[in-house]
Amino acid sequence: MHTEQIRTQLSRSLRVTDFPQLGTRYQGKVRDTYTQEDQLILITTDRISAFDFVLRQTIPFKGQVLNQLAAYFFEATQDIVPNHIVAVPDANVTVARKLDPSPLEFIVRGYLVGHAWRTYRTGARVLCGKTLPEGLRQNERLPKPIMTPTTKAHEGHDEDITRDEVIAQGLMDAGTFDTLEAISLLLFERGTAMAAAQGLILVDTKYEFGRTADGRYLLIDEVHTPDSSRYFYKEPYEELLSQGKSQRQLSKEFVREWLMDHGFAGKEGQTLPDLSDEVRMEVSARYIELFEKVSGRSFNPDTHPNPKDRIQGALASYGA
Question: Staple partner for 32: which of 43, 46, 140, 288, CB 3.0–4.6 Å?
Answer without folding.
Answer: 43
